[in-house]
Amino acid sequence: MGTFSDRTAARQRAVQGLQMSNQRAQRDCIDGVLLIDKPVGLSSNDALMGARRLLNARKAGHGGTLDPMASGLLPVAFGEATKFVGDALGADKAYLATLTLGVVTDSADAEGAVIRRASPEVDEPAFRALALSFVGEIDQVPPMHSALKRDGRPLYEYARAGLSVERAPRRVTVHSLDVLAFEAVPDVQAGEPGSLRALVRVACSKGTYIRTLAQDIGERLGCGAYLSALRRERVGALRVENAVSLDRLEAMSADERMSSLAPVDFLLANLQKTELDDAYARRFLHGQRLRISPAGGRADARARDARVRVYCRGELLGVATVEDGVLVPSRLVGNASQIDSNIQSSSGTGYRQ
Question: Of the listed 31, 37, 46, 67, which one is catalytic?
Answer without folding.
Answer: 67
